[in-house]
Amino acid sequence: MGLPVRASQLTMRLAVVVQILTLGFGVRSVTAWGVSAPRRQSIDDDSTCHRWRPSLPRQQLSLSRPFPQYPFPLNPSSSTLSAINTNDEIESASASSSLDVVLFGVGDLRLDDHVGLARALEHCRNSRNGHLLPLLVLDHQDILHNIPGAVAHTVDTARLLASAVRDLHDQLETTLGLVLHNVPNRATAANQDLSLTATIREVIETYVIGAHREGINPNGLDVRVHVHDLGLVDNILGYGAYHHLQSELGGDSTATTTSFELVPWNSNLRDDPWEDVKSLPNTFPAFETRYVSLLVNAPVSMPTNALAGKYNGIVIPSLQHLPNERDLVNRFVDIFGLDRNQIQEEVNTGLYQTHWGGLDPASATTSTVRQRLETYGGEACRERDDIWFAHEDFVGRNCPANERSLEHASMLWQLRGENKPSDDAKRRVWNSNNWLAGESMVRYLSAPLLLGTVSPRRVWHTSSYESAIFVSPLKRLVEGREWHRLLAARNILTEEAYRNDTTKSGDITKSATMSSTYYRYWRYHGFLCRYAVTDFHESSSTEILSEEDKEGVVLVHGFGASGSQWNKAMMELKLCVAASTKAGPSTTTASQGLAPDLIGFGEAEKPALSYSGYMWDAQVLDFVKERAMAVHGCTSFVTGGNSIGGFTSMSLAASDAADVDGRSLSSSGAPGTQRCTGLVLMNSAGPVKTLEEASAETTTTSIAVATVKGRLPICKPPARPVARLFGNVLLGYLRPRIQSICKNLYPTNPAAVDESLCTGIFRDSLDPGAINVMMAGAKLPPPRSANELLKADFGGAATVENVEILEAFFDGPVLVAQGVLDPLNDSTDRMNRFGALRAGIMKDPINAGHCPHDELPGAVAQSISNWMVATRTERMLRVPSIPKTARVRK
């Protein structure tokens, strides 16, 4: 029985007064990260609803009054929902039938902290004739072709999704007695899927209203579709439903039919930064100063199984088939034209101890993640890695390493510490202190946070231990993720170079000026990364991969820099391509320049990971597969880099040559695309042996073989506090000297060290986690030499110990565009060392310092252009035949 009207109203008013007093007098208990008393996101805030009027030819349905606003009191001790409603509101809301459609998909495959589900349950409970339809939005081309990892880690991604969907289905059925339905995949005669909006309209009109299911009265029916707003940048990436629906329903419809309210919700840590996102501070410390004292939104607790059978759930038998692993793999293969043999060899080739790198996909489901989060962040471990590694819930204990992956082998080398390789099977002898604080959880949570089997708010509030000197790895992880989402949203909303032609948010109505360099985002293992793009041809399409030659130029930056450091060189190269094209279309095939931010640098996320050249190589290879080819339509590519980026591009060229044979040893262990046609090195890092040095060596084992065979020297990095102190001191020393250091590295043209360069490096160094790259430098595994990577005539992989595993290498054309005035080393000697490795390596000395591409971009661009024209025939012979099936990425 409900309360009498006056009692109910009095209760509501008292709750509102208590809420105002609580907020007004500042009951906040501020901690290092925020507050202990969480703030709740209102689950009935309909201020951002979008209306849609679908077409129902059989009859016209009247428009009833909007749903009421329900106040929800602040309850610091609990995050369960307890709506306080007035009887007259309930009476009005219940006069007609209502249908709440709750969408689930990538980003919210959970019941816990699912505000959309909570809103729908509350409304159904307070309605006389309310119905609820849980609907999975996954098996649709608009979604599938945008899911991160679908191209580079097809099978592992399909397994993750299928496992999470099955777990969601079971929880809905057990906890609430509801059935999860799947959005049907409908295709037209042109073999193109119907839009997502049209498909959902079909479900509502045909399967629900048309069948008059469960006593639904179509007259006066109100339909609300609850959808997760993932944030501007992730909405644009397109793997969630909100952006597609918002774009398709954004126009004003004149149809006179029932109302369709698109009700977005979010799982942001705090609301205020998103409301002020256009004026977001440029640095994370300034962001902390402004927002750290604000309450962090509390997660909405998952309903209990005591509520099972309490709701009128729609049941549609024909829509109950949920996509399994096989279904998803087949869909990915069809969409992207993937090779089935290759995708099998890409299993377990992600970063070690992630769900793309060995972890059981079942451990990414909501129930498992919650249990392990509570173990790690609660009293059992208190976020101490030494206790966590010994606990039975530790997920990495049985994680298999890929024997072809140098990244996996190097991580085992770090964890092993002073122990023997034969002890690896025991796992309990691992030295957790050789990884960064919380690194195992950062790797473990990368997939659950992407899939949404756990929310960032749940991760934040799981941390229970704080002190003046302790920084929670869990809070640092989700705070860093939120910061980079906010930064990306601000960039997209305020800077022309970041505006996307598919953006339909707020006042954004035009695309970036494609005559200049522009920026896009992507997710690598769930971590947000940025990249720069320059179209070399004004009319070039960046969306369709066809049989035409379309060669990309993938450029990798050096330490402390970002992809934006290539902007001047890419614009100069565009001029060179235009001049070359006038001489005839057969002289060049260069289509686009692509310059990704390496994870840990630039505007990419900087999670607590043990960074290495193997990780960056694996990242850029994924970038080639997921973005350069699947999105930008490159059929082949030249790669190049400066400093550490030069070594990364050299490793990438070798890894891309790894064949689909299951024996090729490379950074990730994955087969490459075999479409890297050339390599450009600009003052590259990494060892280069002369003939004399190679002849004097007493061992015949290459670094790659020594790494996978466990023959490297013992990994003994300094203690974490020492490494952190050293890193902070070093960063503190470098930050105020950025301009002077850069000018020293630009001896010929110091004026090229402009404000944009210095401001960008300074800003990036203040991001949460920037210190992690510095700390990783003390435990880097020995790098492969250029002799190994480039198949030199001496000291290379072909001349060392004959093993059953073949080392991937690049034997194609190489350009060494060397700044010979580099103050960091004898750059002329290094250029000559490269030139002596084998035939096919061209040397071009440039009168510049360590970063010739930024100091003298015109000279470097002309050097690259001349070399590409001269080697075109040789490079094109390296490209395998292009599949006849076009790959389309919308």
Give an account of the 3D structure.
This protein has 32 helices and 18 strands. The two termini are 53 Å apart. Residues 1-95, 251-258, 502-513, 540-547 and 883-890 have low confidence and may be disordered. It has 890 residues and is α/β, with parallel strands linked by helices. 55% of the residues are buried. The longest helix is centred in the N-terminal third of the chain and has 23 residues, at 154-176. A hairpin with a 2-residue loop joins strand 7 and strand 8. The strands form 4 sheets. Strands 7-8-11-10-12-14-16-17 form an 8-stranded mixed sheet, with helices on both faces. Strands 1-6-5-2-3-4 form a 6-stranded mixed sheet, sandwiched between helices. It has a two-stranded antiparallel sheet with strand order 9-18. The protein is 37% helix and 11% strand.
Query: What's the N-to-C terminus distance?
Result: 53 Å
Radius of gyration: 28 Å
User: Rough shape?
Assistant: globular
Q: Can you give the mean pLDDT?
A: 83
- Helical content (DSSP H or I, runs of 4+): 25-40%
Order of strands across the main sheet: 7-8-11-10-12-14-16-17
- Major β-sheet annotation: 8 strands, mixed
Structural class: alpha/beta
Q: Which range does the strand content fall in?
A: 5-15%
Compute the number of helices: 32
Instruction: List how many beta strands DSSP finds.
Output: 18
As residue ranges, the low-confidence spans are: 1-95, 251-258, 502-513, 540-547, 883-890
Write the topology of this structure.
Layout: H1 5-24, E1 50-52, H2 87-93, E2 98-104, H3 115-125, E3 130-136, H4 141-144, H5 154-176, E4 181-182, H6 196-209, E5 222-228, H7 232-237, H8 241-248, E6 260-265, H9 272-275, H10 284-291, H11 325-336, H12 340-345, H13 366-377, H14 385-390, H15 406-416, H16 439-451, H17 456-462, H18 473-494, E7 518-524, E8 527-535, E9 544-545, E10 551-556, H19 567-582, E11 590-596, H20 613-629, E12 636-643, H21 644-656, E13 664-665, E14 676-684, H22 691-696, H23 703-708, H24 720-734, H25 738-745, H26 755-765, H27 771-776, H28 786-789, E15 806-807, E16 814-819, H29 827-835, E17 841-846, H30 852-855, H31 857-870, H32 872-876, E18 887-888
Parallel strand pairs: 2-3, 2-5, 3-4, 5-6, 10-11, 10-12, 12-14, 13-15, 14-16, 16-17
Antiparallel strand pairs: 1-6, 7-8, 8-11, 9-18
